[in-house]
Specification:
Helix content: 10-25%
Structural class: alpha/beta
Distance between the termini: 35 Å
Shape: globular
Strand content: 25-35%
Number of strands: 12
Largest sheet: 7 strands, mixed
Number of helices: 6
Strand order of the largest sheet: 5-4-3-6-7-12-11
Amino acid sequence: MKDLFGKALLDYQNGNYSEDIITSTNISDEDVLPLPYLFRDFKDMPELEQKALKLCKGSVLDVGCGSGSHSLYLQEKGFNVKAIDISKGAIKVCKQRGVLNTEVLNILNEKEIFDTILLLMNGTGIFQELTQVSKHLSHLKSLLKPNGQILIDSSDIKYMYEDEDGGYWMDMNSSYYGELDYFLSYKGEKESPMKWLYLDFETLKLACESVGLQCELVMEGEHFDYLAQLSL
C-alpha cells in the first residue's frame, strides 16, 4: 500500500491542501471524498456518528481512527481513548492534532481490553469479506470488558442494485452484494485496490449471534445506514 489516504491527511494537516481524494468501487463511478470532511468537528458529524459518540463509556478504542476527529472529541470529554489505524500517515496526523494515545495497528493485532470499541464511517468495511466477519467479531469480543460494548455502523447497499422497475440485478451466483472492490486515488496516484464490506443489519445480527454477541439496532440514518450496539 502506498498510504495515499495518509498522505492526503498529512497534506491537509500541514497546509498543503490542493486536491481531494477520489474514490470508486466496482459498482459505482468516481466520487470525491473532501479532505475537510475528514477533519470535521462534532457539530458537523452525521447524527448517527454523534449518537455513537454520546453512547461511549469507560475506556474507548477508536478503530480506523483516520485523522482522529472522533478520538479528539472523546478526549475533550475526559475519556481515556486509544486510536488505531493501519495508515501511518493517519497516525502522524492524530499525533499532530493532539490525540494522546495512538498507534499504527491492525485491529486483529490489538490485545488490550476496553469498555467501548468504536468502528465508524462504515465500520464493517475493515472486515473486507463476509467470510471474515466471524473472525473479526470473535476478536472484537475478546477485547471487551465484562459490560463492554461495540458501536459499529454500516449501510445496506442493496439500493445500488435496484433497476428502474424496482427489481434487483444482483448476480445470485456471485459473492455477497455488500462485498466491494474499493479504489482510491490522490493527486494522480492510484492506491492498490482493497476489499471493503458493507453489511446489512440482519446479516450483521446473525453473525453476532453465531459468536455469542447480542446485536441491537440503535438508530437508522437517512440513507440506508444504521448504527448497531453489540454486547456480550
